[in-house]
Design brief:
- The structure is a single chain.
- The protein is an alpha/beta fold.
- The protein has a single domain, classed as P-loop containing nucleotide triphosphate hydrolases (Rossmann fold), CATH 3.40.50.300.
- It is about 30% helix and about 25% strand.
- It has a 6-stranded mixed β-sheet, with helices on both faces.
- α2 runs parallel beside α3.
- The relative contact order is 0.20.
- Bound molecules: guanosine-5'-diphosphate and magnesium ion.
Length: about 160
């Protein structure tokens, strides 16, 4: 049984950018079905010779704020059930939003290992802004830039220890 890494978080934090980086040149295993599966993409990734499945959540097709938040919550609940490890992505440029807080609450109740991935830390000056995310109460934070790939190695090194 393959290890499963689910990337969850609000829209626009950079989940798909990280997913694409991790699964680059590898094909998606499962295509679209319906409902919640339509909002999930599965791909294969590899790090230091260990391969694992990555799930990108959220290509949300909701038309109101309420439905939209429900969809995100639903993805988090599924991730808690099926993932080996959850990457909870947040955005250093926006800080912590209400939805981030809500996702954090759900994840704290779940029993799965969670890595807080602070994305868009594109330069050194933003490193200190990222410390704010310790207040989500989910432990260590991992600063990365999905765009440049900076910080992703350290994250993956820690993550595969959960496999
Ligand atoms: P998703 O909605 O969470 O899947 O987010 P996307 O991966 O679609 O990215 C949302 C936006 O953030 C896009 O315009 C990306 O180019 C941008 N983005 C993603 N990662 C980074 C990053 O590390 N730094 C910066 N500055 N922008 C990023
Ligand atoms: Mg996306």
């Amino acid at each position: 049984m393959s290890n499963i890494v689910a990337i969850v978080g609000r829209p626009n934090v950079g989940k798909s950018t990280l997913y694409n980086r991790l699964t680059e040149t590898r094909k998606a295993i499962v295509d679209d079905f319906s409902g919640v599966t339509r909002d999930r993409h599965y791909g294969i990734a590899e790090w230091v010779g260990r391969s694992f499945t990555v799930i990108d959540t959220g290509g949300y097709v909701a038309n109101s704020e309420d439905v939209f938040e429900t969809a995100i919550r639903e993805q988090v609940v599924i991730a808690i059930e099926e993932a080996t490890v959850i990457l909870f992505m947040v955005d250093v440029t926006t800080g912590i939003t209400d939805l981030d807080d809500e996702i954090a609450t759900l994840l704290r109740k779940g029993k799965k290992p969670v890595f807080i991935v602070v994305n868009k830390v594109d330069n050194h000056a933003l490193q200190s802004d990222a410390t704010l995310f310790y207040s989500l109460g989910l432990g260590e934070i991992y600063n990365i830039s999905s765009m440049t790939g900076s910080g992703t190695g350290e994250l993956l090194d820690e993550m595969i220890k959960c496999f």
